[in-house]
Amino acid sequence: LLASILYGPSDTYAKEVLQKQYPRLVSYCDHIRDTFYGKDFSKG
């Protein structure tokens, strides 16, 4: 659920709150994403 909020195509209030108030959590999610998917994550 958290990843779908962070990496979903639309900007939402929940995404904004996560990015502003929980930057360490966002960094952790980015680290996990990069570890498992690397640069291929954004390719559709």
Mean pLDDT, rounded to whole units? 90
**Helix coverage percent:** 55-70%
Oligomer category: single chain
The total count of strands amounts to 0
**Number of self-contained structural domains:** 1
Rg over CA atoms = 11 Å
Q: How do the SSEs run, as a string of H and E?
A: HHH
Low-confidence stretches: none
Overall morphology:
globular
Task: Assess the beta-strand content as a share of residues.
Answer: under 5%
Which class best fits the helix and strand makeup?
mainly alpha
How many individual helices?
A: 3
Give the end-to-end Cα distance, rounded to a whole number of Å: 20 Å
Characterise this structure.
This is GST_C_6 domain-containing protein. It comes from Haemonchus placei. With 44 residues, the chain is mostly helical. The protein has one domain (2-42). It has three helices and no strands. The chain has helices at residues 2-7, 13-21, 23-37.
Task: Report a brief summary of the structure.
The protein is an all-alpha fold and 44 residues long. It is 68% helix and 0% strand.
Give me the secondary-structure topology:
Blueprint (H helix, E strand, L loop, with lengths): L1 H6 L5 H9 L1 H15 L7
Protein name: GST_C_6 domain-containing protein
